[in-house]
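User: Fold both of these, please.

Assistant: Here is the first one.
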Amino acid sequence: MKTILHKANTRGKADHGWLKSFHSFSFAGYYEPSRMHFGVLRVLNDDTVRGGMGFGTHPHENMEIISIPLEGDLEHKDSMGNTTVIRKGDIQVMSAGTGIYHSEYNKNADEEVKFLQIWIFPNQKNVTPRYDQITLDVSDRKNKLQQVLSPNENDEGVWIHQDAWFHMGNLDKDVANHYEIKKEGNGVYVFVLSGSFEINGILIERRDGLGITETDAFEVKSLEDNSEILLMDIPMMLS
């Protein structure tokens, strides 16, 4: 097994007043040649948006864009006519494909919204743009790993144009889960939402990221009650 540890305090940071964002990989004004991407994982942004503020209408193309709300209500509008609100327990996906415009705003004026914005390189370009969101049963991730994303439309969670699988878990102290890589050649990028974990003797804490390659499986052990984790199982080779 090979690993690369990205401690939370080594991430890029942007503070625009209305937006505070931490970047696990190079993004906008943060450029770090050694952290351009991890396999097909291009962007992992940890965003906090002030009440009533947000991202105005802007374009994307040929990217799979996933949003995972952590706190508050995030309102989405796009050029396909979708107007929706996503909350903790939801997961949203956009296949930008040939091109899409969208905006994201904090629906509430009196509280922050916090969410993860994740970009994945697709395995096919110029697909027809699409949008989807679902509400997950978060009790299904108590002391186990719940699948929230896959390449297959009929599987649990949302789906994207890539051989990727995401799982989320909420584990109590000393609970361990065995994870098997879903596809040969894939790696896993682990991101800690809260609490702390141990993987292969490596301590990972809140907002740390750990890239794992050259293995078929590993064990995730929680070191605190109610520790939350996201596992992104993704191809390491760009299409």
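And the second sequence with its predicted structure:
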Amino acid sequence: MTEHAGRARPSPADLRVATYNIHRCRGMDRRVDPSRIVEVLRHIDADVVALQEVVGAGPEGSGQAEEIGAALGMGWVMACVRLLRQHQFGNVVLSRYPIVHHSQYELSWRTCEPRACQRADIELAGGQIVRIYNVHLGTAVLERRYQAGRLASYVHDHRVAPPKIILGDFNEWMRGLATRTLSSLFESVDIAAHLKRRRTYPGLFPVVHLDHIYYDGRVDVRSVEMPRTRKALMASDHLPLIADLRIGF
């Protein structure tokens, strides 16, 4: 007899995830062009994408999230952290699978720019749930120290079952408290084991590794990519970071 009175464990699911700070769709030539971000994402062909620095809807109509989602045929949810020239501004999760739950957790610190962790629960084809945490931490050291503890308490909540994927722009120029805290609680996608280039920012001449992917649960990292196509190098100041995962339940 198998566990749970003979019920078989669900089959593993393959999931391609990506994190990408799109810099308000402002490219290295300083032109704002969402279509370039769309082309980069279409080439990536990920199932779930965590975007940071996205301009949302405002008085003049729809925003970048709606445009990108519609062009790719993906569902999306946005976590607004502040207004930018009367438009929403924050993080977005794009998904080919249904998004069955969406929330955000406050990470703002004192007078620094507002920040949040976005959570989106994705329902895969077999009905299994994967929890996606889209993160964009602050640029100040003391700010990130505060955010590290807050983020850990949200994501490490034992009342919320794994698998969990935590990804985004962590803004740590070197191994700081946020990196150490998350690495102590979760497994990390080690890009050094998969890529010759280990830095993600700035895109043209990357010197630091700001973008990370962590996970909790039965997750096997199959491959990691960081495309340096001409379009990716021009579309944003960050490069997208992609991981092919096999997720067990």
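The domain at 13-247 is CATH 3.60.10.10 (Deoxyribonuclease I; Chain A).
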